[in-house]
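Lab notebook, design round three. We kept the backbone fixed and only want residue identities now. Task for the bench partner: fill in a sequence for the structure below.
Input structure tokens:
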């Protein structure tokens, strides 16, 4: 039995002029954040994992099974999308009636309990739900058929801070079982600061980093100096921003010693890393 919830090895996917090349490993029992700017390949990666796209090369393993896998694998994967693909006129009881026959492990009592816990009325219609409530419904569905892997594609986009906090709390409870794992694609990297053990950073269809979140944050430092204090010819820097009075860039931690004594050096947030790694030099 594999110890990995996900393994993508040498995967290459071609979609028109865009090519994705990705390698990543998500150990069981962990949350991996999938981050990167628009067009980086996050959604293409998720669709490949879900079997919606077939790689031109490489292998994809989900919960120890190589794709294409037996149909029963879908019961162990819960998917939460930015927009739920459910009939808006359905009441939440009808959602269960429509979906339960597709899952041998569907738990009717569990679904009812989750609706109650999330404050969802069984008689409410899908189209009447707010974005936050719609996300909770998708999570309730995923947890009602015994999913071991949750795949979330921009689940917190458009949610208020309270709803986002509730969702991340639910994910934490899901991870109580060591056999449960989460792949969490999002633009809101602050949501990952608290919950993601692993980060895969995509840019222009390539993996720039994949590993422990703390390792990524330890690998770089955010540096602020005078306008001429950062020389790209001497120091590797990312997202260099210059003004008449200051310069700011993301610098590998190992190269901080090459800076002058007047530099202000900080441990960057995940958001600052993503922004700077994906940015070009800016001169104000």
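Proposed sequence:
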């Amino acid at each position: 039995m594999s110890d990995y919830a996900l393994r993508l090895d040498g995967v290459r996917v071609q979609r028109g002029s865009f090519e994705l090349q990705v390698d990543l490993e998500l150990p069981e029992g962990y949350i991996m954040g999938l981050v990167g700017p628009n067009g980086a390949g996050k959604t293409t990666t998720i669709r490949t994992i879900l079997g919606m796209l077939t790689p031109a090369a490489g292998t994809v393993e989900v919960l120890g099974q190589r794709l294409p896998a037996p149909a029963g694998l879908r019961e162990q994967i819960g998917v939460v999308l930015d927009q739920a693909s459910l009939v808006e006129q359905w009441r939440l009881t009808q959602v269960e009636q429509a979906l339960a026959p597709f899952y041998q492990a569907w738990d009717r009592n569990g679904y009812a309990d989750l609706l109650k816990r999330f404050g969802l009325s069984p008689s409410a219609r899908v189209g009447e739900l707010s974005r936050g409530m719609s996300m909770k419904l998708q999570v309730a569905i995923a947890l009602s058929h015994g999913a071991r892997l949750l795949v979330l594609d921009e689940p917190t986009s458009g949610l208020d801070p309270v709803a986002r906090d509730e969702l991340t709390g639910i994910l934490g409870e899901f991870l109580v079982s060591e056999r449960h794992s989460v792949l969490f694609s999002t633009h809101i990297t602050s949501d990952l600061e608290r919950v993601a053990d692993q980060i895969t950073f995509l840019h222009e269809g390539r993996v720039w980093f994949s590993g422990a979140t703390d390792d990524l944050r330890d690998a770089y430092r955010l540096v602020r100096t005078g306008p001429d204090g950062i020389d790209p010819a001497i120091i590797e820097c990312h997202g260099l921003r210059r003004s008449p009075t200051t310069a700011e860039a993301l610098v590998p931690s190992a190269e901080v010693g090459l800076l002058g004594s007047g530099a202000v050096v900080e441990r960057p947030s995940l958001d600052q890393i993503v922004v700077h790694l994906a940015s070009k030099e800016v001169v104000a």
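Keep this in mind before ordering anything: The longest strand covers residues 4-15.
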